[in-house]
């Protein structure tokens, strides 16, 4: 990101190399592994990623799921489960409930999604009775880097909130700002995206963007510079911003991209990842613990990077609880 003190600007998660991931891991490893509920790791990818994250010194995993299935996966893939705690559950719904309970009572400092559906995991976390909610709306952040952009950036929300209201967007922004602060960016630039960069009464995203910027002006959203509405091109391209005559401290150098809804955010993130070869990590904020929430199609590298970000957040939460 654009501040010299940014942790990630020093680490450089480089596209298509293992070196950037290694530097990220090397940075967070001295912070100490965090005890993590790995919920339903019942396929090779999710189980091996958890064990690799353990091997890198990032997490101390508690495996939650049907013991027989987990052990069968380990045997098939040649994975060693020696010394690992396994919470035996009958099915994925029970796995999610046990993971939420362990987090609520402080037995774990993070939750990691395994091979279950996102909806199953979040249904165990979202109810107030689960004890994991804060005053904030829960939201998902993709932390990404692509070769054609000079700094890592955050895309939100692409996984949790389908059609967020104005107040929900405010919390989505606050969560993203918290993530930026945790990785060392003291004043991130937040671009609130729409199809155009001018106010259009027929486009709710532009009205919400204007209101959110005024909320920041009045101190209702703090810790960042906000501007919007901004179209994607002038949010990330100084040339596009200049051509359109946009004079803004955010335009052309956004650290955080706020999507108007889940569909647009998800498509943007997936396009960058699968067609732009972006390196990515995914995490959920707004709960009492960070939640490593990756797609079932995500690579092991993405899962490891997501664990590293969860370590940063978990240690950040010790001094600044969510």
Write a structural description.
It is elongated and about 60 Å long. It has 322 residues and is an alpha/beta fold. Helices cover 42% and strands 17% of the residues. The chain has helices spanning 7-11, 19-28, 44-55, 67-77, 92-104, 118-125, 166-182, 204-217, 232-236, 238-243, 262-274, 300-319, and strands spanning 34-39, 59-65, 85-88, 110-113, 139-145, 153-156, 189-193, 225-230, 256-258, 279-285, 291-292. The chain has 2 domains: 1-31 and 135-286, 3-Layer(aba) Sandwich (Isopropylmalate Dehydrogenase); 32-134, Rossmann fold (3-Layer(aba) Sandwich), CATH 3.40.50. The chain has an 11-stranded mixed beta sheet with strand order 3-2-1-4-11-10-5-6-9-7-8, sandwiched between helices.
The CATH class of the largest domain, by name, is Alpha Beta
Low-confidence stretches: 7-17
Proportion of beta-strand residues: 15-25%
Average pLDDT rating: 91
Please write the string of helix (H) and strand (E) elements. HHEHEHEHEHEEHEHEHHEHEEH
Counting DSSP H or I runs of 4 or more residues, the number of helices is: 12
CATH topology group of the largest domain = Isopropylmalate Dehydrogenase
- Give the tally of structural domains: 2
């Amino acid at each position: 990101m654009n501040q010299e003190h940014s942790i990630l600007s020093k680490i450089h998660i480089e596209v298509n190399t293992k070196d950037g991931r290694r530097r990220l891991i090397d940075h967070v490893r001295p912070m100490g592994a965090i005890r993590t509920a790995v919920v339903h790791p019942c396929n090779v990818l999710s189980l091996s990623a958890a064990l690799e994250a353990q091997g890198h010194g990032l997490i101390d995993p508690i495996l939650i799921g049907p013991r027989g299935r987990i052990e069968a996966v380990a045997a098939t893939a040649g994975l060693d489960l020696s010394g690992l705690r396994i919470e035996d559950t009958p099915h994925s719904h029970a796995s999610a409930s046990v993971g939420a309970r362990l987090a609520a009572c402080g037995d774990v400092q993070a939750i990691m999604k395994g091979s279950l559906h996102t909806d199953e995991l979040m249904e165990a976390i979202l109810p107030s009775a689960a004890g994991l909610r804060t005053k904030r709306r829960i939201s998902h952040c993709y932390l990404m880097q692509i070769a054609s952009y000079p700094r890592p950036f955050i895309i939100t929300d692409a996984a949790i909130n389908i059609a967020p209201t104005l107040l929900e967007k405010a919390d989505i922004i606050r969560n993203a700002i918290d993530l930026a602060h945790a990785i060392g960016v003291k004043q991130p630039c937040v671009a609130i995206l729409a199809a155009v960069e001018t106010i259009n009464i027929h486009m709710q995203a532009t009205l919400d963007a204007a209101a959110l910027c005024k909320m920041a002006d009045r101190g209702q959203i703090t810790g960042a510079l906000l501007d919007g509405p901004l179209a994607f091109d002038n949010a990330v391209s100084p040339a596009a911003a200049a051509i359109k005559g946009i004079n803004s401290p955010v335009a052309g150098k956004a650290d955080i991209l706020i999507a108007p809804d889940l569909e647009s955010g998800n498509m943007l993130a997936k396009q960058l990842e699968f067609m732009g070869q972006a390196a990515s990590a995914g995490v959920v904020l707004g709960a009492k613990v960070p939640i490593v929430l990756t797609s079932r199609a995500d690579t092991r590298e993405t899962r490891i990077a997501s664990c590293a970000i969860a370590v940063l957040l978990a240690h950040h939460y010790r001094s600044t609880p969510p």
